[in-house]
Amino acid sequence: MGRRVRPGGRFFFLFPALRSDTLNASRKLKSLALMAAATASFGLHAQAFPDGKPITIVVPFAAGGPTDRVARDLAEAMRKPLDGVSIVIDNAAGAGSTIGNAKVARAKPDGYTLLVTHVGMATTPVLYRKLTYNYETDFEYLGMINDVPMTLIGKPQLEANNFKELREWISKAGGKVNLGNAGIGSASHLCGLLFQSELKAEMTTVPYKGTAPAIADLMGGQIDLLCDQTTNTTSQIEAKKVKAYGVTTLKRLSTPALKDIPTLDESGLKNFQVTIWHGLYAPKGTPAPVLKKLNDALKVALKDPEFIKKQEGLGAVVVADKRVEPAEHKKFVQSEVARFGPVIKAAGVYAD
Ligand code: ASP
């Protein structure tokens, strides 16, 4: 029976040492060549980013709402430092932001898909026990954007003209008060939970895909109350399309349209304080040079006078501290999870 001999096999058989050395050397050469090719293409890739292809920012809430607003303003301010690239917004709304977050966690990590979301990044890991993503390991943290206070607002038809009258109206209405929110884990949901617990009143909560549709229903009188970011409520308060009953900070706000609204604290809800924040994220595994370019562009945007003016006009404060650094951003979100975790667990409110 003839033995099958691989080409060159005998040669290697006769000189086993030479065989393994030669193999090792050729393997080493091959891997060196591969490494060089990878480095070259990686370098090129990073240098070329953005290469003219549009960047998509996923917003996990409805278009026209406060998170959407922040993302659109930020996109505008980040374009210039990113060589004028187009940035499109993808509203992947629903389930208190978890649908959009999951979409970005699974996206190609090349810098062309990003996420702008708010405090939900820290509340949903506690509120949803079956998330398909991990907030710590599935994202690259790119830096924080702003801190935003909230306002308690009511439908224009409400007879109550101040917080005292609102309290009386709520207690007379029994459980028949409809309170809108943007789904479990949203800022409006958190604020609403806190409000009900402070008042010891149970309300009927009405979830939406974001507070843009919620505020539209509030103005139309389909729901009674909403707690929402000033970035969504300022212009409606100014236009008197909704009634403002309080701000959720301990000090009154300085934004002209909001400065006369009492704090809920001064109206009797002692220490009632809800300030939320937004941050920028990329899928885990996005190359470091791309992350650096994005973080640099974010830092430029956060110093852009036009961006700052827009945000301040809506009651928001643009981040100007160490939380613009990715590591500090991540630390901050982890500390927020630690802060909300026990409160949510004690309340026993879970989405699933
Ligand atoms: N304001 C919403 C919330 O309550 C989010 C949004 O619609 O942007 O979390």
List its traits.
single chain; 352 residues; alpha/beta; ten-stranded mixed beta sheet; 12 helices; 45% helix; globular; binds aspartic acid
Instruction: Give the percentage of residues in beta strands.
Output: 15-25%
Mean pLDDT, nearest integer? 87
Order of helices and strands: HHEHEHEHEHEHEHEHEEHHEH
Class based on secondary structure composition and strand pairing: alpha/beta
- Note the total helix count: 12
Ligands, ions, cofactors: aspartic acid
Helix content: 40-55%
How big is the Rg? Answer: 26 Å
Regions with little confidence, pLDDT below 50 for 5+ residues: 1-45
Number of strands: 10
Question: Kindly, what is the distance between the CA atoms of the first and last residues, rounded to a whole number of angstroms?
Answer: 68 Å
Q: Describe the biggest sheet?
A: 10 strands, mixed
Overall geometric form? globular
